[in-house]
From TrEMBL:
One of its GO terms (cellular component) is cytoplasm. It catalyses: octanoyl-[ACP] + L-lysyl-[protein] = N(6)-octanoyl-L-lysyl-[protein] + holo-[ACP] + H(+). One of its GO terms (molecular function) is lipoyl(octanoyl) transferase activity. InterPro entries: aa-tRNA-synth_II/BPL/LPL, BPL_LPL_catalytic, Octanoyltransferase, Octanoyltransferase_CS. Substrate binds at residues 73-80, 145-147, 158-160. Keywords: Acyltransferase, Cytoplasm, Transferase. SUPFAM superfamilies: Class II aaRS and biotin synthetases. Belongs to the LipB family. This is Octanoyltransferase. The keyword Transferase applies. It is an enzyme of class 2 (transferase). NCBIfam families: lipB (TIGR00214), PRK14345.1 (NF010925).
Length: 215
């Protein structure tokens, strides 16, 4: 199923193996670069998998031999799996390309999605992604992660937002290389079950934020 708003096509890809999704990203990237296709966002879930960005250190990885897929995005290691919504925007950035501004727009999209469910989340200085601030429940904790790459002016990889996933998967790694903060989910924070199916249409509605460049 696909939905188009503001010239951006969202494709609901369901549960998709990481390698198959990576192959589809590259296919779409070529088409967008060539001008044969408009901006497209893949929205999906992965079977359980760890992926390591280019800045991953050996000590960030699982110590129990769990397989890890090395990828060409920025950032460090993270987990993807059931109960987590993953978005891969294949979007042509305006000239001059401003990667930081694009990351900020992605964060804004995710902050707005969290707000719709009643969760106040925001940014942490010097760290990408979307965070629940430190409170009486513990230190700042990440509810959504961002890791991107830009090639020939078009984005690859993207974001993930934890809906009702098993947070125990993050215990095997140092998520995003950050030791002094936690990982959380919409369900854990709000005390009620928030599924990928609940979050998907809300993310779709906010996708135009990705391509809305502020003057």
């Amino acid at each position: 199923m696909s939905v188009t708003t503001s010239g951006l096509t969202a494709v609901r890809a369901g549960l998709l193996d990481y390698q198959a999704a990576w192959d589809e990203q590259r296919r779409l990237h070529e088409a967008v670069v060539a001008g044969e296709r408009g901006d497209t966002v893949l929205l999906l879930e992965h079977p359980s998998v760890y992926t390591a960005g280019k800045r991953t250190e050996p000590w960030d990885r699982p110590m129990d031999g769990t397989p890890v897929i090395d990828v060409d995005r920025g950032g460090k290691i993270t987990w993807h799996g059931p109960g987590q919504l993953v978005g891969y925007p294949i979007v042509k950035l305006p000239d001059p390309v401003d990667v930081v501004a694009y990351v900020r727009r992605t964060e804004e999209l995710l902050i707005d999605v969290c707000a719709e469910f009643g969760l106040a989340a925001g940014r942490v200085e010097g760290r990408s992604g979307v965070w629940v601030p430190e409170d009486d429940r513990g230190p700042a904790r990440k509810v959504a992660a961002i890791g991107i790459r830009v090639a020939r002016g078009v984005t690859l990889h993207g974001f993930s937002i934890n809906c009702d996933c098993d947070l125990g998967h993050f215990d095997r790694i140092v998520p995003c290389g950050i030791r002094d903060a936690g990982v959380t989910s919409l369900t854990a924070e709000l005390g009620r079950t928030i599924t990928v199916a609940d979050v998907l249409p809300v993310v779709e509605r906010h996708l135009p934020t990705l391509v809305t460049v502020q003057d």
